């Protein structure tokens, strides 16, 4: 069971409802919604679980995950149990500058969230999820979280779960991985292979063909053109995930 509640500041002032930053509410079998993103519950203080379910399935927190251990725990719990929702606010979640979500550096954050994604993909029920959800999870992992780690990206695209995606989706993800690596100016030995495989999988997509041909002609020129096309605002965010809360006024929930 999970409920609503309020984010509060260091002085106890109510900022926003937890539900203002959530999808849903969802009830029953919420496994697919849980692994899609971590914004079902908000702060874990709003959740009550059956201890016998935890004990029977030997569930525990992954201490190697700095950001998202509760999300990892909850989607593993949701794989075997159902949930109800109470819309009434029952708790207060204090947000301050010492929250681990604020203090953790971007690289540790990405590594932790990537591990959550990888564990979700390997769950027994992952193949049951809709194609849209499976593609979304691989996109987040390969293009957002593992960017800069070409070796790991090349391992993941060999997983059976990735190979089970339709050919055109695999081609698109490979092209987007390569495009992001080029946009970031990475010296990545795998880019050419990704573009070649993308074009081979879906040669009817002109974007795959053009990007592959351009990279084959001149990697440096291809990188320059990708950089020009990219939005000037497309840069890594260093803003606190709770920044919108601190900008909120009284009664904004």
What does this protein structure show overall?
It is a single chain. A hairpin with a 5-residue loop joins strand 1 and strand 2. The protein has 13 helices and three strands. The chain has helices at residues 31-36, 51-56, 69-78, 100-103, 106-121, 131-145, 150-156, 160-163, 167-183, 191-201, 206-217, 219-229, 243-246; strands at residues 2-8, 14-17, 85-94. With 253 residues, it is mostly helical. The protein has two domains: 2-103, no CATH class; 130-229. A three-stranded mixed beta sheet has the order 2-1-3, with no helix packed on it. The protein is elongated, with a radius of gyration of 21 Å.
How would you sum up this structure in a few lines?
This protein is mostly helical. The protein has helices spanning 31-36, 51-56, 69-78, 100-103, 106-121, 131-145, 150-156, 160-163, 167-183, 191-201, 206-217, 219-229, 243-246, and strands at residues 2-8, 14-17, 85-94. Helix 5 (106-121) runs antiparallel to helix 6.
List its traits.
253 residues, mainly alpha, 2 domains, three-stranded mixed sheet, 13 helices, 8% strand, elongated, disordered C terminus
Widest β-sheet, arrangement of strands? 2-1-3
Return the domain count: 2
Amino-to-carboxy terminus distance: 22 Å
- The total strand number stands at 3
- Nearest-angstrom radius of gyration? 21 Å
Envelope shape: elongated
The number of helical elements comes to 13
Describe the SSE topology.
Blueprint: E1 2-8, E2 14-17, H1 31-36, H2 51-56, H3 69-78, E3 85-94, H4 100-103, H5 106-121, H6 131-145, H7 150-156, H8 160-163, H9 167-183, H10 191-201, H11 206-217, H12 219-229, H13 243-246
Parallel strand pairs: 1-3
Antiparallel strand pairs: 1-2
Helix pairs in contact: 3-5, 5-6, 6-9, 9-10, 10-11, 11-12
């Amino acid at each position: 069971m999970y409920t609503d509640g309020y984010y509060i500041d260091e002085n106890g002032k109510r900022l926003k409802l937890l539900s203002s930053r959530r999808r849903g509410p969802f009830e029953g079998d919420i496994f697919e919604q849980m692994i899609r993103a971590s914004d079902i519950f908000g702060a874990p203080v709003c959740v009550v679980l059956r201890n016998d379910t935890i004990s029977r399935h030997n569930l525990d927190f992954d201490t190697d995950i700095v950001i998202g251990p509760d999300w990892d725990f909850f989607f593993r719990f949701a794989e075997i149990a159902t949930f109800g929702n109470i819309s009434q606010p029952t708790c207060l979640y204090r947000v301050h500058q010492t929250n681990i979500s604020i203090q953790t550096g971007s690289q540790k954050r990405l590594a932790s969230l990537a591990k959550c994604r990888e564990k979700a993909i390997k769950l027994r029920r992952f193949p049951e999820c809709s194609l849209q959800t499976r593609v979304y999870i691989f996109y987040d992992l390969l293009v957002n979280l593992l960017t800069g780690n070409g070796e790991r990206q090349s391992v993941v695209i060999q997983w059976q779960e990735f190979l089970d995606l339709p050919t055109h989706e695999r081609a698109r993800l490979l092209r987007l991985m390569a495009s992001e690596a080029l946009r970031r100016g990475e010296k990545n030995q795998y880019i050419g292979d990704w573009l070649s495989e993308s074009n081979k999988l879906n040669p009817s997509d002109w974007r795959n063909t053009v990007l592959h041909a351009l990279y084959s002609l001149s990697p440096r020129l291809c990188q320059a053109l990708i950089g020009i096309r990219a939005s000037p605002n497309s840069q890594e965010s260093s803003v606190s995930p709770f920044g919108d809360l601190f900008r909120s006024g009284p009664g904004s929930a």
